[in-house]
Specification:
Number of helices: 13
Number of domains: 3
Strand order of the largest sheet: 1-2-3-5-4
Order of helices and strands: EEEHEEHHEEEEHHHHHHHHHH
CATH class of the largest domain: Mainly Alpha
CATH architecture of the largest domain: Orthogonal Bundle
Distance between the termini: 60 Å
CATH superfamily of the largest domain: Transferase(Phosphotransferase) domain 1
Number of strands: 9
Structural class: alpha+beta
Helix content: 25-40%
CATH topology of the largest domain: Transferase(Phosphotransferase), domain 1
């Protein structure tokens, strides 16, 4: 692809970001303006990893799009590796929050949180963990109303994969930004989808207060911050200005036990995000592969029972897969307690048999009716 490097618009520890314009000879499908992330080709392992992750993820409207990569020789013979990305004219959400000098409104927080969760649900469904969710990695696109997308997948990893600092499997490491790290990441170097959800909670607190979730002074002493995160039951302070739904949403993000923490998919159904849901958001959710569990129509009675079990699990805050059968039995037991207008005795007897913890003998064909 023929392109022209423009002015610098950002830089990090290992890469620099410039504006990039497509040359006239480029296919018409290329965007007129892109962001190109570049680094020394000899030190490009992280940037190449980001390119591979974005390629494997594919397109989602809530993730910054990648247009490809190239290697160029700059003036002086320096060889650079370049990745072409969707350009976010609004900068990062951290920049936006800083420039306005005040916290976001709850409506804005809900809208941004929903967008980030839709992106995370897509990432997690593809078997990846972002590992560095923070406001600096959420980019703002002002066109047609402000929307945000997840960026910077340089630290992303496969779910279930443990990597050491030299990249070999089986080791441990710390990765990401301490202010957003989850307890299991601090204590066990565990980076799985629940750690992204914890980081999202920290981002929501920052949007609501204008300050980091653990306080403005926490960054000055990383060791003390790790102790606060990893030891005891302390969680980031829940902003008083949030609605009760917002506070409950954050409590679901900040469950210290990652097994009890709500998933991105569950949080998308939380009442906090449902307050101002619009058709366009539902369309984007479908594009990202988000499944509308609670609103799906059942196609058989087993689907219906499964949906009710999921709803019960959401409301209790416990979604352990091993408890699904207990939840189902409990639900059927509740049905047995209902007053049934017609033929109640036989129906309740039958439901009572089905709700028992003993295994039913399905080989006994007596009493079965053949249907077509």
């Amino acid at each position: 692809m023929d392109w022209v490097r423009g002015r610098e618009i950002g830089h990090g520890g290992f890469a620099t970001v410039h504006l990039a314009g497509a040359a006239e000879t480029c296919p018409s499908g290329r965007p007129p303006v892109m962001a190109v992330k570049s680094c020394d080709a000899a030190l490009s392992s992280s940037l190449r990893h980001e390119r591979r992750v974005l390629s494997e993820l594919g397109h989602c409207p809530r993730i910054v799009r990648c247009y490809g990569d190239s290697v160029t020789t700059e003036r002086g013979g320096e060889e650079l590796y370049n990745v072409f990305l969707e350009y976010a004219a609004g900068g990062s959400l951290a920049d936006s929050l800083k420039s306005r000098g005040k916290p976001l409104s709850e409506a804005e927080i809900r809208r941004h949180a929903r967008s980030i969760l839709e992106g995370l649900e897509f990432v997690h469904s593809k078997g990846f963990v972002h590992c560095d969710i923070k406001l600096q990695n959420i980019l703002v696109f002002p066109r047609g109303g402000e929307e945000v997308k997840i960026a910077d997948f340089g630290l992303a990893k496969r779910a279930g994969e443990r990597l050491s600092k030299d990249g070999k499997q089986g080791g441990v490491e710390w990765r990401g930004t301490p202010m957003y790290m989850a307890p299991e990441s601090v204590n066990c170097s565990e980076y799985e989808p629940p750690s992204d959800v914890w980081a999202l909670g920290c981002a929501v607190v920052e949007m609501a207060t204008g300050r980091p979730a653990w306080g403005s002074q926490a960054e000055s002493n990383a060791y003390a911050l790790m102790i606060r995160i990893g030891v005891g039951e302390e969680i980031p302070e829940i902003p008083e200005g949030l609605s009760e739904q917002g506070k409950d949403f954050l409590m679901k993000c900040f469950a210290k036990n990652p097994k009890k923490r709500w998933t991105a998919r569950m949080l998308l159904k939380h009442p906090f995000l449902a307050l101002d849901c619009v058709d366009n958001d539902e369309e984007v959710a479908r594009d990202c592969g988000v499944v509308e569990l609670a609103d799906s129509s059942p196609r058989c009675h087993f689907d219906w029972v499964s949906m009710q079990c999921s709803r019960t699990s959401w409301e209790s805050g416990s979604l352990s897969p091993c408890s699904e059968m207990d939840s189902a039995l409990s639900f059927v037991g509740e049905l047995a307690a209902l007053e049934i207008a017609s033929d109640s005795s036989s129906v309740m007897d039958r439901i009572g048999q089905l709700a028992s913890h003993g295994r039913h003998n399905w080989d006994d064909s007596e009493g079965w009716v053949t249907v077509r």
